[in-house]
Structures are given as C-alpha cells and as structure tokens.
C-alpha cells in the first residue's frame, strides 16, 4: 500500500462518531479474512467494473470510496489498465490488505471527500455508502465534486434486503438487528441532483443461509456486524434460530442498487 499524503493531521478516531468508530474497529478485526469471505462484494464489484469498461472518462482523479481491500478499484484497473484509483477508506488494516503498489488514503467519508478528489473524473463505491451517517447527503456531495463529463459508479445494498431475516425475527418475536440500509428511491434522487443517470438497476442476489447463527457469524467474519440496534440476548438468539429455517427457506436476499451517472457538460 502506498499512502497518499493525508491532508488533515488529527487521528481518525478523534473525529469519528461513536457508530463510525465501531464500524471501523469491526472492519479492522475482520480485515485479514475480508478478501476470502466477501464473495458477494467481489461479484458486485466486478459487475460494476464491467459497466465502467467502455465509459469515456475524462482526465482527472479517480477513486474507490470506502474501498476496503480495493475489490472495485482492482476490478476497474484490470478492465481499464490506463486508470489508477485512489483507495479511500477509514480502516487502515483493510487498506493494508490491498494490492501493495496501490495508492491509499485513510479518510473518514462522513466528513466529505478529501480535497484531492475535487474535480474527480471517476468516483466508484461499492457496498460502502450504507455505512455513512448520511448516505444521501454524501452521495449528493460526491456527484457535485465530479468534473463535467466525470462519472459516478455506485453499488449499495438497500432497505429491501433481508426480508427473510425480518420475517424470521418477527416470527420469533425478537427485534431485527441488522444495519438499517438506505431506501433506493432517495438514493436515486440524490444521485440525479447533479448527474445524468445512465444505468439505474435494483438487482437481487440470494445466498444460502442455513442458520441464523451461521449467517450472523459470516457477517462478523468480514467485520460487517455493526448495527445501531442492541444485540440479541442468548434466549432471543435461540428463538431466532428456531424460527429461521421455516421462515427464510434457508436463503437470504439482498437488493443492490447499481447506479451509473455522468456529470453533464463537455469532458
Ligand atoms: C462492506 S465493506 C466494502 C469494501 C469494498 N468497497 C468492497 O466492495 O469490498 C465497507 C467499507 O466501507 C468502509 N467505511 C465504512 N465507514 C466509512 C467511513 N466513514 N469512511 C470511510 N470508509 C468507511 C469500511 O471501512 C469498509 O472498508
């Protein structure tokens, strides 16, 4: 990892909200296993990257926002060898798992984009926007920072995900403790404030999830378990586990919003 010059001097932890700090610590603990376990994220990163293969991207800074180990940046660079994407993320241990010669910037995106991405030519982000405090506001800010002719390539899981988990929680009379994911429509509207939308699709992915504990363990393995809800007590977990197979059919579904937009104007 080649660290880009940080433009603020205070440590990340001092600025982070308590929730953002928890998100960062969890991802740090899961960093070593992330690349091996994050199969859905890898598949979505490649799908988004393929949408970028033939775009006319102007000259200018390119970045993967909430890059983690750089799955999206790496996929885009494989398909567009002339591009180099800055990996921006507030979890240095995840950045450190990425390609050794890639440029990285530890940065909390809750505070907006780093100054070196003003006038960006390509801003990509996959499976990261949902972790920010104000996803719509940040997305609108990203769109506004693109140069004319610049592109936003976004994938984000939406609130329509995990209906089976919600149903199992309801059947077990326990709270749903997953992360509150953003609704697709406000995200689409926020993107459209600065951009001409070229692709806007809500994709559904389904994965085997034979047990509640197994599924929660998988999320934890990649450090993605932070939620604003209190954790279930052991008796509640047992009830969820008992309701899970009948209600979920042993599968869970994600809805992922895939969006490509261009900042109007001549490149
Ligand atoms: C599920 S991972 C996705 C990583 C990568 N984009 C991928 O598709 O594999 C979510 C990423 O968002 C990052 N993230 C969460 N909150 C962030 C914040 N406030 N600022 C910067 N990055 C953040 C995490 O550190 C983590 O790398």
Structural commentary:
With 267 residues, the protein is of the alpha/beta class. It has a domain at 14-161 and 180-207 and 254-262: Rossmann fold (3-Layer(aba) Sandwich), CATH 3.40.50. Helix content is 39%, strand content 22%. The chain contains ten helices and eight strands. Strands 1-4-3-2-5-6-8-7 form an eight-stranded mixed beta sheet, sandwiched between helices. It is globular. The model is unreliable at 6-14 (pLDDT under 50). The chain binds S-adenosylmethionine (SAM). S-adenosylmethionine binds at residues 20, 23, 27, 38, 41, 45, 66-68, 71-72, 89-91, 94, 108-110, 126-128, 131-132, 224. S-adenosylmethionine is lined by residues 20, 23, 27, 38, 41, 45, 66-68, 71-72, 89-91, 94, 108-110, 126-128, 131-132, 224.
């Amino acid at each position: 990892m080649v660290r880009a010059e940080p433009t603020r001097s205070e440590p990340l932890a001092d600025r982070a909200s308590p929730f953002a700090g928890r998100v960062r610590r969890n991802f740090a603990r899961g960093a070593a296993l992330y690349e091996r376990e994050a199969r859905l994220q890898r598949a979505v990163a490649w799908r988004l990257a393929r949408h970028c293969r033939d775009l006319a991207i102007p000259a200018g800074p390119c970045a993967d926002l909430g890059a983690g180990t750089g799955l999206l940046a790496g996929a885009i660079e494989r398909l567009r060898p002339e591009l180099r994407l800055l990996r921006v993320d507030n979890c240095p241990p995840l950045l450190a798992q990425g390609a050794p010669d890639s440029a990285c910037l530890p940065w909390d995106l809750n505070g907006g984009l780093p100054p070196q991405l003003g006038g960006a030519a390509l801003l990509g982000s996959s499976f990261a926007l949902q972790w920010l405090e104000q996803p719509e506001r940040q997305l609108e800010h990203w769109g506004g920072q693109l140069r004319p002719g610049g592109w936003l390539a976004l994938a984000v899981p939406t609130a329509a995900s995990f209906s089976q988990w919600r149903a199992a929680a309801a059947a077990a009379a326990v709270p749903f403790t997953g992360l509150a994911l953003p609704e697709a429509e406000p995200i689409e509207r926020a993107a459209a404030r600065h951009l001409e939308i070229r692709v806007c699709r809500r994709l559904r992915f389904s994965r085997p999830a034979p047990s509640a504990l197994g599924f929660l363990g998988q999320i934890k393995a990649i450090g993605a378990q932070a939620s604003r809800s209190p954790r279930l007590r052991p008796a509640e977990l047992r009830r969820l586990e008992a309701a899970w197979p009948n209600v979920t059919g042993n599968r869970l579904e994600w809805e992922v919003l895939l969006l490509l937009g261009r900042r109007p104007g001549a490149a």
